[in-house]
Fold this protein.
Amino acid sequence: MDRVKKLAASLCFAALLCAVLALAASVLERKNSVKNYARFWEDPKGYDVWFLGTSHVYYGIQPMDLWEQYGIRSYNLAASSSTLPQTYWTLVCALEQAQPEVVVLDAFKVHMNEKHHDDRVSHVGLDSIPLSAAKLKGICDMFDTWEERFEYICKFSVYHSRWEELEKQDFNYQLSPMKGSQLKDKLADFSGFQYIAKEDMSPTDTVGFCYLEKIIEECQKRGIKLVLAAFPFCGSEEEQRGINAVPGVAKAHGVDFLDMAHEEGLLDYSVDFGDRNHVNLFGSKKLTRYMGDYLSQHCGLKDYRDTPEVAEEWNADFAIFLQEKIKWMKAAKSLKRYVQWLSDDRYACYLYQEKAPDPKGGLARELAQLNNIHLISLEEAKARMGGEIRGGYAFFVEDAKGEMVDKAVFRKGKRQ
Amino acid sequence: MLFHSIDFLMFFPIVVLMYYAIPKKARYLWLLAASYFFYMCWNAKYAMLLLYSTAITYLSGLCIDWCDRKKKPLGWKKLFVAMSFCMNLSILFLFKYFDFAIENLNALLETCGLAVITPGFSLLLPVGISFYTFQALSYTMDVYRKDIYVERNFLKYALFVSFFPQLVAGPIERSKNLLKQISCGHSFSYENFRRGLLLMLWGYFQKIVIADRLAFLVDTVYGDLYSYQGEQYLLASVLFAIQIYCDFSGYSIIAAGAAKVMGFQLMENFDCPYFARSVAEFWRRWHISLTSWFRDYLYIPLGGSRKGAVRRYVNIMVVFLVSGLWHGAQWSFVIWGGLNGLFQVVGSLCQPLRKKAGRLLQVKEESFGHRCFQALVTFILVDFAWIFFRADTLGDALHVVGGIFTMQNPWFFMDGSIYGLGLSQKQFSLAVFSMLILAAADWMKHRKINVMDRLLEQDIWCRWLVYIVGTLFVLVFGVWGNAYDAQAFVYFQF
C-alpha cells in the first residue's frame, strides 16, 4: 500500500512538473512562429488554398485580400528561407490533419542541396507545427545529428535562455490576423534588373528538385491541385537558373506553372519591391490580384462570401486585419513608408503637398501607384486638420463611409 | 558524454530502468556494459587503456594475494606493487607527460647547443586517465596493506574501475568503499532514488547555473588578457575560484546523486572548502578523494609527519608539487601546487608566532569575526594560487599577478564596466543571486545542518514547491542546450 501511495504521488508530481515546465516553455518560446502559424495549426480544416514556400510568398500574397475580393479561404504557410525539404515536411504534417483544394508552391530554393540553413531560421517555420510522427520524421530527415534534432523536438532547450529578453507580449500575445502573411513597407528601385535567359537552367538533380518531386507526388496522390509558381525577385543567377528549370518539371508531371517573375507588366520594378527578394505593399497588391484571378478562373474554388456561417468568421477576421493595417499606417514614421499603406483602395486619401515631389524620385513613383489620391488646397487641408499646416505633406485618409481613419503631416520625410 | 548533455539525459534513465529490471546477480554486468559504453562515447579506442589498467591492477591483486597464501618474502609483494605502479604510471606518463617532458628536454638541449628531439607521434589525452589510474592503483596498495580482500571476479573489479558516474572526473573511490558495494545487491529504495535525484539537481545547479555562467566572464578576461587590466583580472580571478569549485563540486555531486539512485554511496569530495580557516584545512575539504589518495599513498609512505618537522615539510612540498603535476603537464600547474604546499609549510612555521600574537592582542579565536578573517585570508591565498592554475602560461599568470597589484581603478566595480566582460547585468545579477544561495547552503552544511534532511521533513506541498521551483530554476537559468556552447567540465582535462 505504501508502495502504491509513493508511486501515485510520484506520478502526480511528475505530471505537475511537466505542466509547470510546459507553461514555462510556452512563455519562453519565441513568438514569431506561433503568431504567424498557430491559427492554422489550431484548425487546419477550413482553408481551400495553402500557400507554401519562402518569404517571397508571405510578402507577396495576402489571404485576407483574397477573401475580401474573391471569397477564397487561404492560409500562407510559407516560412522564412524555407528549403524544399522543410516545405515538404510542413505539407506532410498539415496533410495529416486536413486537405486543401489547391496548394500553391513557390519553387525558389530548388537549386539548393542543403536540407536546411545553418542559422536556425528553420525554427520560424517549424516551431508552431505540433509534435507528431510526421514532424519527428521530418526533423530526423532534415537534421543529421541528435543535438540539432533535439532543439526542434524540445524547443525549450533553445528558448530557455530567453528569460533575459522576456517582454509583456511573451505573456500575453495576439495571433496575427494576417493568415501567415506579412507586409513590407519599404521601397527599393530595381528598374535596371534583368532576368537571365529562361533557357539558362540548373541541373535538376539537387536535393531541392528531389523534394519538389516528392511534393508533386504527395499532392497528386491525394488529388490536390498543385500550382508551381515563380514569384518575382531580383536574385542571383544561380537562384534564377533553378527557377528556370521548374517549368520542365511541371510539364513532365502535368502540373500548372505560374511564372509571375516573367509576366510582362505585372510589376513595376522601380516601385514594387521592398528589397531584392521581396515585394512591398504595392507589389503585394498586384501579385495578390493576379493570384486571385488565376485561382478563381482555373481552380474551381467556391466563393464563400455568400455562405453565412463561413463569411461571418472570415469577415470578423478581415475587420481585425483592417484594424491592424490602420495601426501600422499610424505607426509609420517615414513618408515613403506611409505612402505604401495608402495603396489600399478601400481608403480615399486627400493630399496637400507644399510642392510636387521630384518626378524622378521614389516618392513620386509611389504616389503614382495610388488610385485613390486627391490633391487638395492648403485651405482645405487646414480645415481638415483643424489647425495650421506649415509646409511639407499632409495626408487625410478616409474610409468608405467618409470617416477619418488617419491624418498625418510630414516634413523632410519625417512624421510630425 | 557530458552529464548535462542530451545524450546523458537519455542514457541515464535507460541505465537505471534496466538496472532495476534485471535480476540482482546480473546487475553489475549491466552496469559494467553501461560504464564502458559511457567511456567509449568519448573515444572508443581508449577503452583499451581502461581495460589495460584494470587488467594490470586486477592481476597485481591476485599476485599479491598469492604471495600471502604461499608465504613468499615481502620483497615479492613489493615487486608486484612496483610493477603495477610502473605499468600504470608509464601509460599515464606517455599520454599525459611525454610531450611536456620532451618540451623541457628540448629546452635543455637547446641551451646546451644540441639537436632537439622530434617525436614521431602525438597522442590525445584519454579523458579521466588520471582518475581511473589512481583509483586502480589504490586497489593494488589496499590489497598489499590487507585493507581489502582480493576481488577474484574480474568483471566486478572492472566495474569498480570503470563505474560511470565517477569514471571521468572522480571522486577517486577506494576499493574498501565501492568494491564492497558492487558485491552487494541493491534493491530499489525510494529514499535513495529521491535523495539521488535531489543531489543531481543540486549538482546541476552548481555546474550549469553558476560555474558555466561565471565561465563566460572568466574566459573573456583570461582568454584575452592583454586587453584587460588589474581590476578585470581581480574580478575574473575571484570568480574563477567560485567557478572551479562549482564546476568540480557540481560534477562530484551529480556523480554521487547518479550513484545513489542506483543504491551506491560515493564518498564526499568537497566539504565547504571556502569556509576553511587555513590552507591545510582547505585541502582537507577540497577534492577530498585526491588529497586523501596522496596522503595515504604518497605522503605516509614518504614518512608523513613521523620523521621530524623538516622531513614533514619536504613531504608536504613533494605531495603538492606532484599534485600540481597531476592536474596538468605545465609548469604553471606545478607552481600552483608548490604555492599551496608553501602556504601550508609557512602557515605551520608561523603558527607559534600567530598564537603568541593572538594572546598578546587578546584575540578570541573562535569569535565570528576572527573565523571570518581567517577564512578570508585563506581564500585570498588559495585564490592567488588559482591564478597560476587558470592562466594558460606561467608568463600570463605573472602578468595577472602584476596587474592585480598595480590596480588603479577601483571604481570599475561600481561604474557598470563589469557588465562588459561577457555577462550582461541580468546575467551577472543572476550569478550573484545563485552564489548567495550556494553560500547559504554551504554555510548551513558548515554548521552541520543537513539541508536535505530538513527539506525531506517538510510537508508534501512544501517539498513539491521546492522541487518544482528548483527544477525550473536550473532548466531556465542553466547554461545548457544549443543556445550555448557546452562548457565542458574543467577537470576533464585530467
About this structure: Chain A touches chain B through 23 residues (CB under 8 Å). The beta strands of chain A are 49-52, 74-76, 102-106, 225-230, 256-259, 348-353, 373-375, 393-398, 404-411, 414-415. The CA atoms of residues 190 and 269 of chain A lie 5 Å apart.
